[in-house]
Structures are given as structure tokens and as C-alpha cells.
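Suppose a classmate hands you a notebook page containing two proteins, each written out with its sequence and a corresponding row of C-alpha cells. How would you begin to make sense of it? This section walks through that situation. The first entry is reproduced here exactly as it would appear on such a page.
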Amino acid sequence: MSAQAINIGINESDRLDIATGLSRLLADSYTLYLKTHYYHWNVTGPMFNTLHLMFETQYNELALAVDLIAERIRALGVYAPGTYLEFAKLTVIAEDTDVPKAQEMIKNLVAGQEAVVRTARSLFSVVEKANDEASADLLTQRIQLHEKTAWMLRSLLE
């Protein structure tokens, strides 16, 4: 028995292109989740309590976001990546090789948040061409949240 064809008003080529882009967004988001969780566990210094709680809020939000992104990829008829190996190939966010000081953690997370924004923003041309409003809505929400989070983190550096 063959799988039923997907007929959601987006042709297969566009669905594959969108899913490929969303896979990069998923990898960036999951890598940022890992980095934020790592910092939550290991932050020290006078801003410990503030950063510990802030990082927890951020990684919890990212944990929910990766599920939404992966489910959108599946709705487009493509399997979502889900291994460290796949994410490492797809992400632009670098892993840490040590435990940075709190200020460096904040700077790294600003860069990570902004990287996710750039990845999300880069997908709009294919999403709009395909009239994929659901993916466009997801991207808009991700951009808005990551831009706000980057601003809040940057504010700690002033």
C-alpha cells in the first residue's frame, strides 16, 4: 500500500524546499536550546540567580518551539531531522568548548538568537512564493520571539 498523496495546495518541490529550510531552523533552534540549557546549569557570578532563571525560561520556550517546527516539517510530508549529527550539519550556531563567564554566555546567546532570526527570515521568499501561510505564520512568531529575547539579553550587557 502506498502513502496517500499530499494535496494541500503547495507543490512537492516547494514543500521540499520549505522543509529543508525549516530543518535548518529546527537545527539552529535545537542547538540554541542545548547551549541555553548548558549555560543555565553552569552560570556563576553575581548575576547567577537572574541568569539561571532567565536561561531556564528561554530553554523551556525553545523546547516547545522545536516541536512546533518539527511538526510543521512533518505536515509538509517530510521527516524532521532529530539527531546531533544531523543538527551539527544543518546549524550555524557553534558549540562551546568550555564554560564561558556569564557576560560571554549572554553575548553568545545574543548571537544565537540573532542567528535563528536570520535563518527564519531567509525562508520567507520560498514560503511566500508557495503561498504557505502556515509556515509564514510560524516564521513570523519565531522571529518576533527571538528578536525580543536578543534585545532582553543585550540589555543585560549595558
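The notebook's second entry, a different protein, reads as follows.
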Amino acid sequence: MTMANLTKEDIEIATRAADHFQRLYYTAYDSSTRVDDLPNFYRPNSAISWNGNPYAGAEGMRQLVMGMPKTKHDVLSFDCHPIPGTQPPSLLVTVSGNVTHGEGPVGNPVSTPAKNIEGHPRVFSQTFMLAPDSTVTLKPGEVAKYYIIADALRFVG
């Protein structure tokens, strides 16, 4: 398959898969059980870059979120591009939005400087490379299941 062979339907299917993925992912990320849930999106060989810091695989993601205060993500937009060459295709998903770590500004001690970023929403951009999970048996007509092979998050500003 080449890019010229992608149809509008291919892109719509990929976008639906990406929408489903990002909803599940950020719900898990913001949950009280994220230390157990979030690593399920990754494999041992997944590459993660969190604001310039490298982590390896599902265990790396577990270690990252174990040391992080609770989060609240507000996704403002996402886009998805199917990558030709596999069927179902791998997906390049970009997400942008705001994330608050901790209790928000009201959770900061009174002595916290007003310009302190902790507890305030921060703009983020996150890019995922999703690969189809060949270990999952699909029922006829079921959309492919994906896992994260690469994940890069950056705070913007």
C-alpha cells in the first residue's frame, strides 16, 4: 500500500481507532489505578520519551507514573495518520491539550509562588506510534487492537 492508495475510508477508520485509543489512554492515565492500567498500553520494547527523559517499555512507564502526582488531562485536539505497509496499518497519532498535575492551584501550599507551574494546567503535545497487536484474535468486522511502540511527550511553553 502506498500513500496514494489510502482512501478516505482508510483515514476515517484510522481516525476512529485513534479517537478510541486516546479516550482509553487518558482515562487510564488519570485514574487512581494508572500504575497498573497504563503499562498495559505498552510492550517491553516500547520507547518512551517524557519531556526529554527516556524510559523503556511498560515497566519504564510504571516507574514514571509511580513518582508522579495524580493528573487531569484535557485533550483539545488529536490527529491520526495511517502508515502504509502493514494491514492493518500502524498509526501515527498526535495529541495536544492541557494537563494538571496534583490537586490544581488550590492544592498548592499558600506559600507557593504565583508563577509556580506545579498544580497549574500545562500545555502538552504527545505523539504516539501505534502498532497493530498481532497477539489479539479479532472477530469478523472488529477494528484492530493497537499497542504503543513509541511515545514522545513534551510540555509546550
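A careful reader of the second entry would note: Residues 36 and 62 are 7 Å apart (CA to CA).
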